[in-house]
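Complex 325.
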Amino acid sequence: MNIKKPECYEMKKKAERSFPGAMDEAQRKTLIDLFAEKVLFEQPMEQWTTFRVGGNADALCFVEDMFTLRRVLEYAKKTSTPYLILGKGSNLLVKDLGLRGLALLLRGHLALMERSEKEGDHLSAGAGLHLSNLLNECRRRGLGGLEFLAGIPGTVGGAVLMNAGAWGKETADVLQEIEIMSSSGELIKKNRAKLHFAYRSLDMLEGSVVVKATFKCTKRSSEEVEERMRHYREKRKNSQPLEYASGGSVFQNPPGDFAGRLIEQVGLKGFRVGGAVISSKHANFIVNTGGAKACDVLALMDLARKKVREKMGVDLQPEIRVVGK
Ligand SMILES: Cc1cc2nc3c(=O)[nH]c(=O)nc-3n(C[C@H](O)[C@H](O)[C@H](O)COP(=O)(O)OP(=O)(O)OC[C@H]3O[C@@H](n4cnc5c(N)ncnc54)[C@H](O)[C@@H]3O)c2cc1C
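Predicted structure with flavin-adenine dinucleotide bound:
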């Protein structure tokens, strides 16, 4: 079933015609110096998010150590340049006119496993590390407890910030401590008791960056850890449309119910706007079947919220983070 393409296609064309160059030469030069050339300008965010939609980021910067991170946060503060920490972009919908300012990717020293065997049943990792690498280390060391994260396509920092969870468990259950850099460059350690987690969120000071996380695991055999991960990956494959680009669950599950069930109930499975479709496998997934725009996804989100509110009396809250212009 199709619905009319949103007016935003026209709005986007108009805006693109009148949109001024995002960064001037001096700003570019400063950033090139700051990041030792590890910076890309006018980067299409469709290449850096799992939804595969979104306009350009003014500058995509690869931050490889604490020193550079501190300097870039100082630069952002001094020049009032906005910034966004970008993990794998698996929970982000970037709008079609893109992101102003800096998208910061944590790499190098900020994406490493800490290898100290002294840690026993604890595991520490840089925030930029992909969860699949963290889980490989769990398997190698026979550390269980994090298997529920298997198949979530994010980074350690993204999992902490989103309190990622599945199958009745969430990151907050296994987190021991995080290290944060505040927007003024101060490094702060916070243990679990000082952190305010909620469903798919962590309450953190605006502009702070998670740089490291330590998890408390449970000793298990490597085979058992592997088997549990395989089990969860299989469940995921059977219930989610993994063959398409998406941002995972679009809406949070309301208390005692499932967003997917409600969207299915109001008859929206298979609804399409442009290249975006409400998945017929899992109604809480909007998939990009090719060439979707962020405004297509947003139009489907509006439709789902409206119908579910009207027919089921439930106000769905987005789980994905919508950013940009
Ligand atoms: C197919 C699929 C399945 C999914 N399944 C699940 C699931 O089962 N459970 C679940 O919870 N989620 C799921 N997700 C959503 C997503 O993978 C998770 O929310 C994940 O934790 C996001 O990590 P990321 O690194 O991609 O973060 P991003 O999407 O890049 O960022 C998400 C938010 O975190 C912020 N952020 C990221 N890193 C940092 C940092 N170091 N410091 C400060 N802020 C930071 C970003 O600025 C942004 O606001 C799924 C997504 C897909 C595509």
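The chain has a mean pLDDT of 93.
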